[in-house]
Design a protein that fits this description.
By secondary structure, this protein is mainly α. It has helices at residues 11-29, 32-39, 43-50, 53-76, 81-95, 106-109, 120-145, 155-174, 179-196. The model has no long low-confidence stretch (mean pLDDT 86).
């Protein structure tokens, strides 16, 4: 790693703290002072380790994505497309209202409002959300081939729909919606997959 950091610097722990600041305040709202205080380092150490604020965000997103990957593996391993949708949306309702985390989703919250000089941030977040959508589409293509989904089902549209509902739930959670409200959205949304299933 780059020089200029204290030897006791714990990158993972520091990134967890930075991740929470970005999650709570968004990229634009998170200040260098807030980030360095949360991470327990000084500004020169931040710049030495991550280059700049955007570099820190990308590193925090890498950590967030890595943590999310194990959860997504569990979602995608559900036996049917309908179960994939239920597992993802119920898990979203639970995680985005977990009092141990900021409300909502970092991949949504992080870039809702970005000004001049931060134009790349929304695209970075959108690209990471798109990876999840790609995984869902591939899973639904498989479900169609296996006869779980109707042949008339559109795997890409279903993946996009599920991603959009998940993102919308994140916005609701960040605006104060409780777990029960999000679970209601999840239950209604799962019915779309029941209608597309051959196993109703």
């Amino acid at each position: 790693m780059a020089m200029g950091r204290p030897r006791e610097f714990d990158a993972d722990a520091a990134l967890d703290q930075a991740m929470e600041v970005f999650w709570r305040h968004g990229y634009e709202g998170a200040t260098i002072a807030q980030l360095t205080e949360a991470m327990g380092i000084n500004p020169p150490s931040l710049y030495a380790a991550f280059g700049n604020k955007e570099g820190l965000l990308k590193a925090a997103l890498d950590r967030y994505t890595a943590k999310r990957a194990a959860w997504m593996e569990g979602v995608l391993s559900a036996p049917t497309a309908r179960d994939v949708a239920e597992r993802m949306l119920m898990g979203t309702a639970d995680s985005q209202t977990d009092p141990d985390n900021p409300p909502g989703c970092l991949l949504v919250q992080g870039g809702l409002a970005c000004g001049t000089g931060s134009e790349n941030v929304p695209f970075e977040l959108a690209a990471r959300r798109a990876l999840t959508e790609d995984q869902l589409r591939e899973r639904f293509v498989r479900a169609t081939k296996e006869g779980d989904l109707k042949q008339t089902a559109d795997p890409a549209a279903l993946a996009r729909y599920l991603s959009a509902v998940s993102a919308g739930m994140g916005v609701m959670a960040s605006s104060g919606a409780d777990r029960e409200a999000l679970r209601q959205v999840a239950n209604v949304s799962v019915k779309v997959f029941e209608e597309q299933s051959t196993k109703r």
